[in-house]
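Worked example 3. Consider a protein that binds zinc ion.
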Amino acid sequence: MSTHEQFAEDLALYALDELTGAERQAFEEHLQTCAACRRELQAMRCDLGLLGLSSSGPQPPARSKQNLMRAIAAEPRGVSAPEAARVPGSATRSWWWSLVPAFAALGLLIFAVAVWRSNQGLKDQLAELHNRNQDAATQLERTNDELRLLTSPDAVHVSLNSQKTAKEPTGTAIFSPARKRMMLMASNLPAAPVGKAYELWVIPINGAPIAAGVFKPDEHGNAVMMDRPMPEGVVTKAFAITVEDEAGSDKPTSTPVLVGGVG
Ligand SMILES: [Zn+2]
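Given these inputs, the predicted complex is written out as structure tokens:
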């Protein structure tokens, strides 16, 4: 059985690229399914990277890491203690072997500091994300309200115009180059002739107009096209609406009813 807790030690070894064989494979499998371990690993790698950069002395950290690994390797891990103690060449063990506990302690201290620091960082990030999330939720709720109004079947669009002029068709296109989405709202459009419909065109800075959807206004002359894909790889100069066959055309064949330039 593999649980999150049992991988705590493997996580540190893995971050140092010291986990091998079946243990490495088992840990990588667990990593696929455990977001907590992935976060911890990333934070640990980040901090290890910073520690590596900040150590300008004559390499004590590298040596202590190596010795820590040896010390850990020499620990009995699910194997009986005597077997683990049978190290090849144990008769000629170097004097520094006695320093292993000190190096191990130093290594653990480095880990403790790294873990503590990443913990602090994560807490800050979490608070920040929580705030942003609340802002986004509020914003989304407001947008949803607006969209519900715009798209509700009984919505009445009232244009306020000078009494002297007739109601002119108007349109608003909203698009996000980053999200590659757009929407269109139009009012006061005359009903399209039989067999015809309105077609929206995206007019790029370079190249021909790109068809962006066919629509018919309702009996009040209102039309909405929600959340449409924006053509990719072009910089949009303007939008235009023409009357075309209701099946849609691949290029404009009539004078635009509405045109709007971007910014
Ligand atoms: Zn885990």
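Take a moment to read the result before moving on. The longest strand covers residues 236-245. Confidence is low (pLDDT under 50) at residues 55-59, 78-87.
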